[in-house]
Amino acid sequence: MSARLQAALGRIRQDVQGMHAYAIQDARGLIKLDAMENPYGLPPALQQELGRRLGAVALNRYPGPRIDELKAALARFVDLPDGAALMLGNGSDELISLLAVACHVPGAAILAPVPGFVMYEMAARLHGLRFVGVPLTADFALDELALLAALRRERPAITYLAYPNNPTGNLWDEGAVRRVIEAAASFGGLVVIDEAYQPFASRTWLDVWRAQPDAHGHVLIMRTLSKFGLAGVRLGYLIGAQRLIAELDKVRPPYNVSSLNAEAALFALEHADAYARQAAAIRAERERLLQALAALPGVQPFPSEANMILVRVPDATKAFAGLRARGVLVKNVSTMHPLLAGCLRLTVGTPAENDALLAALPVSL
After folding, report:
1. Going by C-beta distance under 8 Å and a sequence separation of 6 or more, which residues neighbour residue 192?
2. What φ, ψ does residue 270 adopt, rounded to 5°?
3. For position 8, what pLDDT does the model report?
4. What pTM, to 2 d.p., does this model score?
5. What secondary structure letter does DSSP report for 163?
6. What are the CA-CA distances from residue 140 to residues 114, 171, 291, 304 (Å)?
7. pLDDT at 41
């Protein structure tokens, strides 16, 4: 290593040098069931129409009024509650990062149940906040007593509740979530309900918000169009009280959503019925997969309200390698947290992809 390179590396924070970058698996030539993507593309006619729309975008200009039109379309799509506003992000990941930036004061902490979405902890560490993980129960429910105790002790600036959770796929008990929201309100903490997988869930916290708006002034609901079917577009959005969103929006970089991304998202919302049919097909396939997996010896699937299924197998490393050798790529989450020992996370694919998974899994165990 040259002296100049070594000196330059010395300018990078030691904690960053000790981290691992977010790993993305090479899926070339494999059935890709590792990243909770919508497996369906648009029909050819809609693809051609989208291509024409994108071709007309003025790429020589910064994003302009179409961003406001996208926010208005999203507001109609979600039936935005009175007094609420929207903030856009380059995927949910950017919103999680911006929340950490906005709430970084000396001693601030971010709290979340674990195992959960890794970006909550990564954003906290990168922006100098403490991260407090509260383990779930053995059956992946919220440990309400431990969570409430941690809230009282740590008084976190932000508490994340993924609804449904990743990688476990389950929705939390509604009463427990209400009590967490109340506990956070007692010291002015924000609660972020992460609804990334809302298209596949049986309920949304936005309905609770509409019924009790006064109880949700400190609550943010975060969603993404990635699971909707636009993972490549990278568009997330945050819903919150107008005054709260106005403050958070101050840390958002200008033009953080590109004109192409905005146009693709507007097009998708105009054809939301097509994506709704895809989500219905995924939900039906999820139920078929759950039944088939439960019938396999040595395989324990856990209930899911997302487009993924967590399964416990006798040897996760062996099963992962066996599936990959047979052309099926899943996610080995067995080392992410002790509660996930022996677990794989399976994305719900098309019927043909799911058939391939079901054929390969028994001989991979």
Report:
1. 99, 158, 159, 160, 161, 219, 220, 221, 222
2. -65, -25
3. 72
4. 0.92
5. S
6. 9, 10, 20, 11
7. 86
Tokens of 88: 């856009």
Give all strands of the β-sheet with 219-224 in edge-to-edge order: 84-89, 236-241, 219-224, 190-194, 158-162, 109-114, 130-135
**b/e sequence 94-106, b meaning 16+ C-beta within 10 Å:** bbbbbbbbbbeee
Q: Which residue has the tokens 């509660």?
A: 339
Q: Which residues, 6+ apart, have CB-to-CB distance to 136 below 8 Å?
A: 113, 114, 115, 142, 143, 168, 339
- State both tokens at 16: 């960053």
In one-letter notation, the amino acid at residue 341 is: A
What whole-number distance in Å separates Cα of residue 185 and Cα of residue 168? 27
- 224 contact partners, CB below 8 Å, separation of at least 6: 91, 92, 196, 235, 236, 237
Instruction: Count Cβ neighbours within 10 Å for each residue of 21-48 and write b for 16 or more, e otherwise.
Output: eeeeeeeeebbbbbbbbbbbebeeeeee
Contact assessment for residue 56 and residue 353, using Cβ atoms and an 8 Å cutoff: no
Helix, strand or coil, per DSSP, at residue 315 = coil
| Sequence-ordered strand ranges (E) for 55-174 | 84-89, 109-114, 130-135, 158-162
Q: What is the dihedral of CA 71, 77, 81, 87, to 10 degrees?
A: -30
The DSSP secondary structure of 194-260, one letter per residue, reads E-TTGGGSS--HHHHHHH-GGGGTTEEEEEESIIIIITTT--EEEEEEHHHHHHHGGGSPTT-S-HH
Residue that has been written with the tokens 């967590």 in this structure: 310
What pLDDT score does 227 carry?
Answer: 82
Query: Is 188:218 a contact under the CB 8 Å cutoff?
Result: yes
Please give the single-letter amino acid code of residue 105: V
| pLDDT averaged per 10 residues in sequence order, the chain, 365 residues | 75 77 76 91 89 92 93 95 94 94 92 95 92 96 96 97 96 96 95 95 94 93 88 91 95 94 93 92 96 95 96 96 95 95 96 96 92
Evaluate whether 340 touches 316 at the Cβ level (below 8 Å). Answer: no
Distance CA 136, CA 146 (A): 9
